[in-house]
Specification:
Blueprint lengths: L8 H20 L2 H11 L4 H4 L9 H4 L7 H22 L1 H22 L11 H17 L7 H4 L4 H17 L6
Helix pairs in contact: 1-5, 5-6, 5-7, 6-7, 7-9
C-alpha cells in the first residue's frame, strides 16, 4: 500500500492535501486563527442568504479541505483512499476528481437546502465521501452484488438509499454534527 507507484493520482493528491491542510489547522494555527479559518473558508449558509460575502463563493470547495479533528480527517481520508482507488481504477483520474468535486458541492447544497440561514460553518470532506459511498452502493446493487430480501427487492434500490441515509444522519447525530 505504501508503494507510491501503486497509489493512483487521485488518492496520491487528495490524501496529502487533506493531511497538509489539517496539519496547518491543528499544529501551526492557534485556536483563534483556526476558528477564523473555519468561519472564513468553511461553508456557511447564511453568507449566501442574509450576510452575503463574495469570499463565500469559494467555500463550497474549500470546506472540504478543513476538518474538525484528527478522527474526522482519518475517517474521511481512509474512505477516500479506499473508495477513490476503486473509482479511479474503474473510471479514471479525471472522472474521479470531478466526482469528488460534484459530491462535495452536493453536500454543501444539501446542507444549504436544509439550513439556509444558519451561521454555523460546515467543514470536512464527508459530503464527497458520502457521494462516493452512495455511488458504490448503487454500483454494487446494479451488478447484483447486494441482493435484497424478497420483501425489500420489490422496492428496487430505495431500501439501500434509506439505509444509507439512516447511517449518514445517524452517524452525524451520534458524532454531534446534527443533520448535516
Amino acid at each position: 500500500f505504501l508503494n507510491m507507484q501503486n497509489i493512483l493520482p487521485f488518492v496520491r493528491f487528495i490524501v496529502p492535501a487533506l493531511l497538509l491542510c489539517h496539519i496547518v489547522q491543528s499544529l501551526i494555527l492557534n485556536d483563534v486563527q483556526n476558528y477564523q479559518l473555519i468561519t472564513t473558508l468553511g461553508f456557511v449558509s447564511s453568507k449566501f442568504t442574509t450576510d452575503f460575502s463574495a469570499l463565500a463563493l469559494i467555500t463550497p470547495l474549500t470546506y472540504m479541505f478543513l476538518h474538525g479533528d484528527w478522527m474526522h480527517l482519518l475517517v474521511n481520508t481512509f474512505m477516500l483512499g479506499a473508495l477513490g482507488t476503486a473509482f479511479e481504477r474503474a473510471l479514471g483520474t479525471k472522472k474521479t476528481f470531478m466526482f469528488f468535486i460534484i459530491s462535495g458541492l452536493g453536500g454543501a447544497a444539501l446542507h444549504f437546502a436544509i439550513n439556509p440561514y444558519t451561521a454555523t460553518p460546515v467543514i470536512g470532506a464527508s459530503g464527497a465521501v458520502s457521494g462516493f459511498f452512495a455511488a458504490f452502493l448503487l454500483m454494487a446493487y446494479w451488478r447484483g452484488m447486494m441482493p435484497l430480501p424478497p420483501k425489500l427487492a420489490r422496492y428496487g434500490i430505495w431500501p439501500l438509499i434509506a439505509i444509507w441515509l439512516f447511517l449518514i444522519v445517524g452517524i452525524g447525530m451520534l458524532l454531534g454534527g446534527g443533520l448535516l
